[in-house]
Amino acid sequence: MEPRPHDTSLARQGSTKPVQRATSNLTGNLTGEAAAMAILASPVSINTESHPLASYGDTLIRLIWRQRALVLICTILGMASAAIYLHFATPRWTTEAQIYVTRNGPLAGEGEAGAISDNVLNTQCQLIKSSPILAVALSKIDADDLSLFRDVRNRISFLKNNLSVEVAKQSDVIDVDMQTPYPDDGMKVVDAVVNAYQDFQRRQMLSADGQMVASLQHEKDKRDSEIDAKTQELSNLRQSQTAMGAGEDNSSIIMQRLSTLSSALTTAELDTLTTRNAYEQAAKSAGIDTTAPDWVARNEADVSEGNLADGTLDEDAIRSRLFDLQQQMSSLRRQYLPGHPAVQALQSHIDELTRAIVASARQKWLAAQSREQELQASFDVQQKIAFAQNARNGDAIRLASDIKRLEDLSDSLDKRIKELSLSSQAGSFSIQMVDAAANSDDPTYPDPERVLPLGLVAGAVLGVLLGLIRESGGLTFNLKPMGGGAGKTMIGLPVFASVPRQGEVSIKHVAWSAHLRPESTIAVAFRTLRDALQASSASDADLAAPRTILIASPMNGQGRTIAASNLAITLAKSGKRVCLVDADLRLPSLGKVFGLREDSGLTNVLAGVDPLIKAVQRTVIERLDLLPAGPSVDDPVELLNSPQFVETLEDLTLKYDHVVLDSSSVLGAPDARIVAASCDTTLLLLSQEGASKRVAEQCRDGLVGVGARVIGIIVNSAPKRSQRSQDERNDRNRSVRKPTLPEPSRSDVPQLPLRARA
């Protein structure tokens, strides 16, 4: 069948331009895989000229102005949220106390007394929040009656998290504050913590070393008095001896021995005095009356056998164990009553260790006393010998020896006093209360001056962000056409038709809707699409009627094959000769939809295996033929990008009025862009449920970037209940059962005319 004259002219107008456009945009000097790579690279970046923000030349102020309603709503909501929060939030008061910390004496290597570094102050802040001091503070208040500790299991941990202890800027003052909904309870807690810290520092100053210094100073004063008395006595004796003509022999061996024993006896007396004071202090701290006649008999044997018999525990180790047990007792007393077995057992162990410390101190004292007695006996014997040898100078020698011994003892006591004074006072702190614990006049939380502006700013920022996302399409998951009536647009393109989903079980029934159910909403939609295509070419004299029409979609599963099938059927029923081409060489489906064989198709034609006349098959619909995809190939891009594909389209336009093509998804592979570059017209199918605005724009820009002529949008919308009901009523009027698909025709198509080749 020869083509009519006007068909040939239409073929030239409709096919020559796309061929030239495809050749210039795609292949040029590139062929095969190189040209395909050019297609792959073209849509990587979105065309900024068509992007909303770039095309409108948006600035932040303009964006806010365009989205002023959204920004205003979000700002009002932010302010309302802040007001609601202020109304329902539990008010809290701040309890604050300030203390001034100074050092009593300089440490080695430091400057004058009172100077203190930031690190030391920070250490004191950590000390105030330490568990032992917080435990003492809790023991001083009746925490069970405070509402602050209601339903609080670990009170020490609660205080650590809510108590703020910081060094004030540009000063040595430490701020201790706490924010609570119970101002009276907060004041009690802060005051107790400060008092516990002051007691701790006071105990550090009044330690056992400090008491020892006082006792040693008293002994030194007594020895100094004895030295003065004996010195006066010796002076008087020497005056009397001088008057009598008697002398002294200080170089004798006896005097040297006596001097040596005197020094040893002095040291022994000092040890005895020191150990006795330590014993008395230990007994006093333990609350033991050492004057009781039965104390030693009742306790010393048990302590020695139970705690010190193996010799592995010295006094320091016992004190360390005692401190640990006392910490455990503090924890148990907060949990149990004094009569609890665990408390009594731990108290018994503490008493044993206390007695052990006292007994250990007593043993040291007795050992020192025994050594002193031995040296005293040796000294007495040597003194008698000296008296016997120096009868005339005996009194003077004795007095001189006593004075020397007392002076040595006084010097030793003075040295010991200085050592203990330095060790007890160096590094100790003096605490002065600057401001006692007091509550703020008004609640400090929540602060309206901070919450309201924060709600205002947060609402405004949220509105701007939502406006930006709204304009860029980041949140537009369901596409909606803009405008009304026939002037609807989407992503800058006119909407030619809105196709409702039918919810059919079989894809064949939906793909044949324009033939099987001509009164259904989907058939009406595709007739509208057909009229829109004709009107688009009629409205612009420079545009030729579309001969090759590609149905493209961003992704698979959006109804592209159904749209191509129904459009081809609608065009054929209007009296046009139509060829439906399955150019989806990756997932072909039109052959199955029309029930035709797929052993020969587009791939055979492009590969040169079969002629076009053999690959094209008739369908049961008059004036509609099908060119299936054919056998699968390894590289569809190479076939579609070959010159044979363009020539095949030209051959088809010589025979048919319209060639409708179905291809793979635009964003999934470069196939659709290659096909679009060779077609007169491309219709972009978008699903309102499956594509965002950004994806749709990226798909559009990818097609335009390769020279495709995208003229309009087909919207695949969700089915409406009224439309489904109307379709069901139409089906019931025609037949109770669904229409049966007609059997496909097996006859070949007539010989296709070939275009003239040079």
Structural key phrases:
rod-shaped; nine-stranded mixed β-sheet; alpha/beta; four-stranded antiparallel β-sheet; disordered C terminus; 11% strand
Explained architecture:
The chain contains 28 helices and 13 strands. By secondary structure, the protein is α/β, with parallel strands linked by helices. The chain has a 9-stranded mixed sheet, with helices on both faces. It has a 4-stranded antiparallel sheet with strand order 2-3-1-4. A hairpin with a 2-residue loop joins strand 5 (489-490) and strand 6. It is rod-shaped and about 160 Å long.
Kindly summarize this structure in a few lines.
The chain has 758 residues and is an alpha/beta fold. The chain is built from 28 helices and 13 strands.
Strand percentage, roughly?
A: 5-15%
Quaternary organisation: single chain
Taking the sheet with the most strands, its summary is:
9 strands, mixed
Contiguous helical run count: 28
The outline comes out as rod-shaped
Secondary-structure blueprint:
Elements: H1 5-27, H2 33-41, H3 52-55, H4 60-66, H5 68-88, E1 93-103, H6 118-128, H7 131-140, H8 155-162, E2 163-167, E3 173-180, H9 183-205, H10 208-244, H11 253-286, H12 295-308, H13 315-335, H14 341-389, H15 394-425, E4 429-439, H16 448-472, E5 489-490, E6 493-500, H17 507-511, H18 513-516, H19 521-539, E7 548-552, H20 560-573, E8 578-582, H21 590-594, H22 602-607, H23 612-615, E9 617-618, E10 624-627, H24 636-640, H25 643-655, E11 658-662, H26 671-677, E12 681-687, H27 693-705, E13 710-717, H28 721-734
Parallel strand pairs: 6-13, 7-11, 7-12, 8-10, 8-11, 12-13
Antiparallel strand pairs: 1-3, 1-4, 2-3, 5-6, 9-10
